[in-house]
Design brief:
The protein has 409 residues and is an alpha/beta fold. It has 13 helices and 13 strands. Strand 1 and strand 2 form a beta hairpin.
């Protein structure tokens, strides 16, 4: 791939446009570098204007008969496009090609300025060229740096939460549960998922618990339902699990951090789920655990996903040794809107007491979850009492595997 254009991105986007039923009227054909790809995109835009289908034969005939393009070149280019795998989420490809177009434009302008220097033009003329370039970048890039909205236009809204009566979690954002090993964090989050599903009868929840086999997770569910939360038995057909190997969201290539394409595939696969629990955070990361810049980028991907698609995303995160505090870069916690820490209950001598309960502490509360939590710390029963556990076998649970879909070996 050249730094200024990407053949594979272009054919993938064109393939996606041909097979998509979405409107494409706002797409600019100039984002394509290759002339034939521009012509194909222009043809697709014309077909939309005329309410005609994006049919291969119609496209082929228009390119040859109307645009007078070489028949062999058209056939070869159309074969490349139609053999590419279309994506239902093609906005990422548009964004990338627009970015490359802007880089090409800037480079072209800089080359013109370099020619001005070589031709011994005056300082005023060179400065004028630089100012003209700056103005073009600001006014014609088509990219809005940030939104500006008058306060009078903004509708006041309180933050909304799921599972308010259990452990309140803010909607449309990312929260973190931090704990050490053996504290029952997975059992607690499974219980939370069942509470959510009981309260939202039409929704589904997805838990990617990569550290535990499905059989162990089912055993935990049976245990909790049998002696602690029997209503959870009604939710299991909407509680979808995976124990597959995870993938790193961030990849390092040529000393630069890039975003793994599997992240976008995961978003597509989980479109129907409103609650998503990922365990552990570090297994999905891929960057330097103590690098704040990388951690910030990672968290921004998930917070934007949650906000844009109305998801409630919860990460289970390992704590630092002998504490319940989140380990690694502070940017993980900074980006989360609520952080809960889970601890065993101990006496003054450090001996664990009441092994069925855990102390849950709300250590970060941007959206006032404490209003529903009843403060910032309380004890919650995570495991049933042994004498209350019944031999209860819930109906079934759905196993969700993603190896084939995400291409994970």
């Amino acid at each position: 791939m050249n730094d200024l254009f990407d053949f594979n991105y272009e054919i993938t986007l064109l393939s996606s446009l041909i097979f998509s039923e979405k409107s494409i009227k706002n797409i600019d054909s100039d984002i394509f570098y290759y002339p034939m790809h521009k012509s194909i995109c222009s043809t697709l835009l014309l077909l939309e204007q005329q309410n005609l289908p994006r049919d291969e034969i119609i496209i082929h005939n228009h390119l040859i008969k109307t645009m007078k393009l070489d028949e062999n070149l058209v056939a070869s280019s159309m074969m490349d496009v139609l053999s590419a795998t279309p994506s239902s989420n093609f906005q990422a490809y548009i964004d990338r090609l627009e970015e490359l177009k802007r880089i090409r434009n800037v480079k072209s302008s800089l080359l013109n300025i370099q020619i001005d220097i070589q031709e011994n033009k005056t300082a005023n003329e060179i400065e004028a060229s630089l100012l003209s370039l700056s103005e073009k970048i600001v006014t014609k890039s088509g990219v809005e740096l940030f939104k500006m909205v008058p306060a009078s236009y903004v509708e006041a809204k309180e933050s909304d939460f799921i599972t308010k009566s259990f452990i309140p979690i803010p909607k449309k954002t990312v929260s973190i549960f931090s704990a050490g090993g053996g504290t029952g964090k997975t059992s607690l989050l499974l219980q939370l998922a069942m509470h959510y599903l009981h309260e939202n009868q039409e929704e589904k929840a997805f838990c990617w618990l990569s550290e535990d086999p499905l059989g162990l997770t089912k055993h935990r569910l049976n245990h909790v339902i049998g002696g602690l939360y029997p209503l959870g038995a009604e939710t299991l057909h909407r509680l979808i699990l995976s124990d597959d190997l995870t993938f790193p969201t961030l990849l390092e290539q040529n000393r630069a951090i890039t975003i793994n394409s599997h992240f976008y595939k995961m978003k597509m696969m989980l479109k129907e789920f409103k609650l998503i629990i990922l365990d552990p955070l570090i297994a999905f990361y891929g960057g330097d655990e103590n690098n704040n810049a990388q951690a910030k980028l990672f968290m921004q991907l998930f917070t934007k996903w949650a906000s844009d698609e109305d998801k409630t995303i919860i990460f289970i995160h390992h704590s630092t040794k002998n504490t319940s505090q989140s380990r690694g870069a502070s940017a993980f916690v900074d980006a989360a809107r609520a952080v809960y820490e889970i601890e065993k209950i101990k006496d003054e001598d450090g001996k664990e007491v009441d092994t069925t309960k855990r102390k849950i502490t709300l250590t970060k509360d941007n959206y006032r979850a404490s209003k529903y939590f009843g403060g910032f710390s309380k004890q919650i029963q995570v495991f049933p009492n042994e004498d209350s556990t019944k031999n209860h076998q819930p109906a079934f649970i759905v196993e969700y595997t993603s190896d084939e879909e995400l291409g994970i070996q």
